Amino acid sequence: MTAATGYRYDTSWREEATLRDGTVVTLRLVRPDDKALLRGGFARLSPMSRYLRFFGAKRDLTDAELVGLTELDGIDRLALGAVGRRPDGKAEGLGVARFAREAAVPDVAEAAVTVADPAQGKGLGTLLLTHLAQAARERGIVRFAAEFLAGNAAVRQLIEEACPDARLSARGGVIRAEVPLVAAGVPAGLDPARRLMREVAGRRLEFRRGPLLPDGPTRSL
Question: How many domains does the chain have?
């Protein structure tokens, strides 16, 4: 990973947080030597969690995928991880949030969050996405891209109500929403993207990374 000097969220950033159930986690940037932690965290995902994250069944992460998920430049591609401790004292990966800047639109990034099933429902997803948004803003990113199945009317209604400035487009059976990120320090009640992040944590909406839209014409909504 290339050190992102001049940023708060760089390779030296560490922060401890306590989840709702009292679990203490360490937040930091994902490193190239985290491949085993990511593989272990993936193994603890339920089939449903894997489907929500990857839009399909997936049994394991390949070596090539682990390289792509851990060897990042810290500017255009960045990931934050939450590390906990097992009862035997060994480290375990509990969650990851990441973004990848779009080359054609450099102020937009596709984002994703994944939380291991045992750590879900404790506020970790919201915590990771909040820090991810802050890290993205300081790198000049102003919108996160989210995608969801077109048949999910509840998610579309949520986005339209909570974030009327979201940009919606559709291709095939997938809708893409670009959600603006507000300036740091804005109260949570005035930040529509924060509400969407809470929905992510509740698994009603997935911020996802990767080219999910099928080939075909795109239309604005």
Answer: 1
The pLDDT-based confidence of 193 (bands split at 50, 70, 90) is low
CATH number of the domain encompassing residue 30: 3.40.630.30
What does the pLDDT look like over 146-171, one tens digit per residue? 777 677 676 677 677 767 777 778 77
Residue that is written with structure tokens 């059976």 in the block: 173
> Is residue 6 domain-resident?
no
For 76, counting Cβ atoms within 10 Å of its Cβ (0-12 exposed, 13-18 middle, 19+ buried), the class is: middle
Residue 7: inside a domain: no
Give the pLDDT band of residue 39 (cuts 50, 70, 90): confident
Residue 33, domain member (yes or no) = yes
Host domain of residue 97: 14-220
User: The whole model's pTM is what?
Assistant: 0.76
Does pLDDT of 192 surpass 90?
Answer: no
Instruction: Return all residues near 161 (Cβ < 8 A) that are at least 6 apart.
Output: none
Residue 4, domain member (yes or no): no
